[in-house]
């Protein structure tokens, strides 16, 4: 079997899919994307495709070496995301070829269902309680919310109180048997994070995510030592070498993104690395159906897995949502806040190729907003 064709599709709301075709008719799908930089990743996929055309798709480990290291310069979001999507497609092909779900190829399932969380906005306490009530009604046992919008470099008492009040409102709506995770999104300085973490501790968040931006990861050890709240990070880390220092710093939850951190191949290695630090895996996934399918395959085969992000109804998904490009939506029919085990071959989703090709004709040009402080200077989004 040989790889004969690799195509990419820019599909709304902000995704990029790749399709890898073989000469015996088996097709694999992947989702190589950096949100807001999809065109750049598309170009990277086109260049990497040169290494795969004419090759045996089942030599995934060897392809991963060549794709990540064969160009001398390596790593970073664009290249690692391009590799990630191609890697997902190769695992999809392998599963379909062997007639097995990817989790079987990874050693078999260690759980029967995967806990997923729902996104709630978190910007306004009254709306928050309503959103949480709707997610609880839908069966979810955990939600994630943002800590704050743009805040002062050292948060004012009112800004600090607003974060705490919103999380308190979430805790009240959820009760003691459900979880709330709080995403700081790198919006706070380390000093502000430290102050806010102390005040949030009594509300028992599941974890606090990105308490500092990734380039300040050297400050995580101090923050981890100063709080009892489990700290999480990883959506902007691209391989196991970048996870090593944050795990050593005491991060409790590793959040690699299956579409950014080298795909199924690398995220399983990151999970093993996290396990040696007693840390848990909670893959980032505000993305499309292929990224989520790949995430779930890893979740089923990973002992130290905690919880899975998913994008159904997330605020980004305006023109299309998680189920838009699927022939069969059953794999993402969450029951009691869990994804059922899917034993279909490959990644386990049936992509609606016609819908994908049609959507690509319009494409998208999604960009994240650029925020500024009141004085006009740049603010982290
Ligand atoms: Mg995040």
Low-confidence stretches: none
Total separate domains:
2
Query: What are the distinct ligands in this entry?
Result: magnesium ion
Give the overall silhouette.
Answer: globular
CATH architecture of the largest domain: Alpha-Beta Barrel
What is the CATH topology classification name of the largest domain? TIM Barrel
Q: Which sheet architecture does the biggest sheet show? A: 9 strands, mixed
Can you count the helices? 12
- SS strand fraction: 5-15%
Distance between the termini: 45 Å
C-alpha Rg (nearest Å): 20 Å
CATH class category of the largest domain: Alpha Beta
Mean pLDDT: 96
3D structure, described in words:
- The chain has two domains: 3-99, Enolase-like, N-terminal domain (Enolase-like, domain 1, 2-Layer Sandwich), CATH 3.30.390; 104-347, Alpha-Beta Barrel (TIM Barrel), CATH 3.20.20.120.
- Helix content is 38%, strand content 15%.
- It has helices at 38-49, 60-69, 77-98, 102-105, 125-137, 157-174, 190-200, 220-226, 240-248, 263-276, 289-301, 353-362, and strands at 3-11, 15-22, 27-30, 113-119, 142-146, 179-183, 208-209, 231-233, 253-254, 280-281, 308-309, 338-340, 371-372, 378-379.
- Helix 9 links the parallel strand 8 (231-233) and strand 9 (253-254).
- Helix 5 (125-137) packs parallel to helix 6 (157-174).
- The longest helix is centred in the first third of the chain and has 22 residues, at 77-98.
- The mean pLDDT is 96.
- The protein binds magnesium ion.
- The site of magnesium ion has 5 residues, from loops.
């Amino acid at each position: 079997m040989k790889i004969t064709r690799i195509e990419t599709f820019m599909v709304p709301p902000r995704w990029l899919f790749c399709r890898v075709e073989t000469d015996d008719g088996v097709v694999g799908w992947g989702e190589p994307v950096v949100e807001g930089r999809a065109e750049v990743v598309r170009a990277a996929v086109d260049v990497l495709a040169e290494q795969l055309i004419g090759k045996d798709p089942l030599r995934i480990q060897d392809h991963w070496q060549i794709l990540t290291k064969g160009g001398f310069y390596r790593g970073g979001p664009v290249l690692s995301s391009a590799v990630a999507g191609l890697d997902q497609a190769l695992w999809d092909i392998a599963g379909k070829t062997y007639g097995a779900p990817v989790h079987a190829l990874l050693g078999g399932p260690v759980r029967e269902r995967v806990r997923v969380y729902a996104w709630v906005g978190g910007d306004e306490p009254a709306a928050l309680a309503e959103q949480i009530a709707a997610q609880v009604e839908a069966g979810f046992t955990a939600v994630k919310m943002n800590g704050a919008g743009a805040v002062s470099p050292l948060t004012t008492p009112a800004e600090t109180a607003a974060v705490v009040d919103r999380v308190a409102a979430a805790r009240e709506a959820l009760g003691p048997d459900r979880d709330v995770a709080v995403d700081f999104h790198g919006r706070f300085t380390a000093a502000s994070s430290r102050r806010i973490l102390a005040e949030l501790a009594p509300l028992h968040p599941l974890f606090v995510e990105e308490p500092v931006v990734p380039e300040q990861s050297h400050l995580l050890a101090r923050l981890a030592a100063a709080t009892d709240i489990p700290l999480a990070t990883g959506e902007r880390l691209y391989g196991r070498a970048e996870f090593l220092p944050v795990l050593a710093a005491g991060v409790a939850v590793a959040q690699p993104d299956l579409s950014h951190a080298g795909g199924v191949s690398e995220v399983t290695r990151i999970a093993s690395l996290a396990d040696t630090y007693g840390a848990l895996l909670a893959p980032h996934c505000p993305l499309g159906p292929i990224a989520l399918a790949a995430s779930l395959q890893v979740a089923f085969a990973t002992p130290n897995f905690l919880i899975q992000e998913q994008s159904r109804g997330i605020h980004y998904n305006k023109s299309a949502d998680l189920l838009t490009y699927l022939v069969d939506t059953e794999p993402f029919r969450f029951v009691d806040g869990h994804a059922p085990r899917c034993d279909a071959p490959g990644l386990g989703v049936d992509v609606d190729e016609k819908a994908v090709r049609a959507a690509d004709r319009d494409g998208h040009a999604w960009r994240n907003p650029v925020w500024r402080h009141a004085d006009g200077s740049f603010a982290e989004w």
